[in-house]
Amino acid sequence: MRIGHGYDLHRLDEISPQGSGRPFVLGGVRIEAPRGPVAHSDGDALLHAVTDALLGALGLPDIGQLFPDHDPRHDGADSAAFLREAVQRMHAAGFEVGNIDCTVICERPKIGPHKDSIAANIARLLCCRREQVNVKGKTHERVDAVGEGRAIEVHVVALLVARSAVS
After folding, report:
1. When you count CB atoms within 10 A of the terminal residue's CB, does the N or C end of the chain come out lower?
2. How far is residue 17's CA from residue 127's CA, in Å, rounded to a whole number?
3. Residue 15 forms beta bridges with which residues?
4. Residue-wise pLDDT tens digits, 19-56
5. Per-residue DSSP letters for the chain?
6. Cβ(97)–Cβ(158) below 8 Å
7. Which domains does the chain have, with CATH numbers?
8. Is 50 exposed, middle or buried (CB count within 10 Å of its CB: 0-12, 13-18, 19+)?
9. What is the tens place of the pLDDT at every residue in 67-118?
10. Gap between the Cα atoms of 141 and 147, Å rounded
11. Which pTM does this prediction carry?
């Protein structure tokens, strides 16, 4: 077994052209919101954290090393591509997902109405069952940039198991 932790944080701003925010995408699911992540790629903080959790469990370089934000090829990139690369590396190393536990921290938008579709999409990208993916939404109780709605923060823990151990 291998355990990895992933973390990401993105500043939120009004959606372009009023601000520098990109459309709000979380776990590969687009959510209507007046503010979105300021990022080089699509800014999907959840997929970034899941990717880093897998890479960390495998002892591999992190998402910033594999897909640097100064590389113009990643400008506006779909973060699912980063996760697919991590999944390929996970399978090549002989592992599968045991489970993934995700905590998304933001004031708005509320993710409760979107949790099932987000978890289902992550499970699809990870080639695992929906019940192996948990997504929780929390607020930051109006404390700091996250609590003031100026940022989104995500923590993910991934348990990987040897492929033959997956039932």
Report:
1. C
2. 36
3. 21
4. 999 999 999 999 999 999 998 889 999 999 999 999 99
5. -EEEEEEEEEEEEEBTTTSSBPP-EETTEE---SEEE--SS---HHHHHHHHHHHHHHT---HHHHS-TT-GGGTT--THHHHHHHHHHHHHTTEEEEEEEEEEE-SSS--GGGHHHHHHHHHHHHTS-GGGEEEEEE--TT-HHHHTTSEEEEEEEEEEEEGGG--
6. yes
7. 2-165 (3.30.1330.50)
8. buried
9. 888 877 877 779 999 999 999 999 999 999 999 999 999 999 999 999 999 9
10. 6
11. 0.94
Q: Which residue has the tokens 């500043």?
A: 11
Before 109, cis peptide (omega within 30)?
Answer: yes
